[in-house]
Design goal:
This protein is α+β, with helices and mostly antiparallel strands. The chain has four domains: 107 residues, Butyryl-Coa Dehydrogenase, subunit A, domain 1 (Orthogonal Bundle), CATH 1.10.540; 115 residues, Butyryl-CoA Dehydrogenase, subunit A, domain 2; 126 residues, Up-down Bundle (Butyryl-CoA Dehydrogenase, subunit A, domain 3); 140 residues, Butyryl-CoA Dehydrogenase, subunit A, domain 3 (Up-down Bundle). It contains 17 helices and ten strands. The strands form two sheets. Strands 1, 2, 3, 4, 5, 6, 7 and 8 form an eight-stranded mixed β-sheet that branches. A two-stranded antiparallel ribbon has the order 9-10.
């Protein structure tokens, strides 16, 4: 049970020395959030060098690793719109440019993004409803003189499009004959605000994430230099799928940041209020809710930094873990804030108070930024694919019992494919009960996975209700793994307040056990 440590001690110290003034500035603004102005905050963040975070060092950036970047987003997400701004107007477009751009393009754009001179945004969504890689109507036609492209189309839900001066646009491209015959390929272009034929309209505020409006951007006969093509003419599909895949949308650190801020407000409210002439914090029911929310936050943090820590090492495939972290954090954030609002009561329903705003902001992570149905299916199918590869022979024999009677008898009597992981031997002795729960969860997960593949075979992808249940089981099991790993490490190395970690881990194991057993 190893909890990854992605930084050396020296780098850890340097990073938190850089982060501390940013954290202090955000905390000061939280004291009076109504007076905090978007332009002033962004200006100060430029001075702090925040927009250098995801840019390579050779282009004036800091090149933070995944764990450091997640911590930065978590801190900024004390203002939920600011965390969203950092992700959608910095991390995502910079990732696309860094992945696909030539060295000349990187040298031209990345230093200006790092200094805040350029504010990029990504244009995915078509105006006729959603993102469909097979039905993108925005077209980019190569000119007859072979010197530039002409862009025509409309993109909706462009985040902060009215403030951006660089658009990363996904469109069908090629010669006019190829596009008219339906053979255009998906490409990515860098379109500067100063190019002709660009207009922003229909600026709309979201229910949550105030100060982060969306708009519709229209391109009419916009001439794009040929050098502004990112990558090859047909390389847009892979980067689009990668950017939109569950786990790659940086929702988890935002959810951790907003829930941490909400807990502080909730705790202050509970300490100051009375209920029926008794201090509210003295009620056991109130303590139970605070404990559940705290254990949820602890598990969210554990999953997030466990996964980002693993992702730094070479040859690590964290696709499944990232998807589970994203979905779990988004859902737990919403559920925990809603539970906390019930303690606050009528005050939580006043628009002048900040409480309901946190709930609306959290909803954006499940409604606007992701789609839980797809995420559940994605997680379940990835996990079952792994089970199928490793237990193919066993499942094949289970599906054909009359051909392999000896194997079936051995399996029934526990002589084949029975797990005995002895997890408790690999963690601090005080966590033995949690280790027992975890071992039961893992055994149950394997049993259910094999049963589903035995029962449905290649038709498993159509069984969405069962996929949803196994996705929840796998996600909760992974959460328990990360919680116990983190707690065991804290206790073994003698971190301050490690005893509180152990109590939170015990609570989480108890909450996990009845649902998965």
């Amino acid at each position: 049970m190893y909890y990854p440590e992605p930084q050396t001690k020296e780098r850890h110290t340097r990073f938190f020395e850089w982060l501390q003034p940013i954290e202090t500035y955000i905390s000061e603004n939280l004291e009076n959030p109504q007076s905090a102005r978007k332009d002033d905050i962004l200006s100060h963040l430029r001075d702090f060098g925040v927009f250098r975070a995801h840019v390579d060092e050779q282009h004036l950036g800091l090149n933070l690793n995944e764990t450091e970047l997640a911590k930065l987003v978590e801190v900024l997400s004390c203002f939920p719109w600011l965390g969203s701004y950092m992700v959608k107007n910095h991390i995502v477009p910079v990732h696309i440019i860094s992945t696909m751009a030539s060295e000349e393009q990187k040298a031209k754009y990345l230093p200006k993004i790092a200094t805040g001179e350029i504010v990029p945004t990504v244009c995915y969504t078509e105006s006729d409803g959603g993102i469909n890689v097979h039905n993108i109507n925005t077209m980019t036609v190569l000119s007859d003189c072979d010197t530039h492209y002409t862009l025509n189309g409309e993109k909706s839900f462009v985040v902060n499009g009215h403030d951006s001066n660089l658009f990363v646009v996904f469109s069908r491209s090629g010669h006019s004959q190829a596009i008219s015959s339906g053979h255009g390929v998906l490409s990515v272009f860098l379109v500067e605000r100063g190019m002709n034929g660009i207009a922003c309209k229909d600026i709309k505020n979201l229910v949550g994430l105030h100060n982060s409006p969306v708009c519709t951007v229209t391109f009419k006969d916009t001439k794009i230099p040929k050098d502004n093509l990112l990558g090859e003419i047909k390389s847009g599909m892979n980067i689009l799928v990668d950017s939109l895949a569950p786990g790659n949308r940086n929702i988890a650190p935002q959810a951790v940041g907003i829930l941490r801020t909400f807990i502080k407000l909730l705790t202050r409210h509970v300490l100051e209020r009375k209920h029926l002439d008794q201090n509210m914090y003295e009620y056991e029911g109130i303590q139970e809710v605070i404990g559940r929310i705290s254990s949820a936050l602890y598990s969210m943090e554990s999953m997030l930094y466990y996964t980002t820590g693993m992702d730094i090492y070479e040859n690590q495939d964290c696709t499944l873990e990232k998807a589970m972290v994203e979905m779990y954090c988004a859902n737990e954030c919403v559920a925990s804030i809603y539970e906390g609002l019930q303690i606050i009561g009528a005050q939580s329903y006043l628009r002048e108070m900040p409480y309901i705003q946190f709930f609306e902001d959290a909803l954006s992570y499940t409604l606007f930024d992701s789609y839980n149905v797809d995420s559940n299916i994605y997680i379940a199918l990835l996990g079952l694919q792994h089970v199928g590869k490793n237990l193919h022979s066993h499942i094949m024999k289970l599906r054909n019992p009359f051909y392999f009677p000896q194997h079936i008898l051995n399996w029934i009597f526990g002589k084949e494919y029975q797990l005995n992981l002895r997890i408790a031997d690999h963690m601090h002795p005080s966590l033995v009960n949690g280790g027992t729960v975890l071992e039961k969860c893992i055994a149950r997960l394997q049993t259910v996975g094999v049963l589903m593949l035995q029962r449905h075979g290649s038709e498993i992808s159509d069984r969405q209700m069962e996929l949803h249940r196994i996705s929840e089981l796998a996600t909760k099991t992974f959460a328990l793994i990360t919680v116990l790993s983190r707690t065991s490490r804290s206790y073994c190395i003698g971190l301050r307040n490690a005893n509180l970690d152990r109590q939170l881990a015990s609570i989480f194991a108890i909450l996990t056990h009845p649902k998965e057993n």
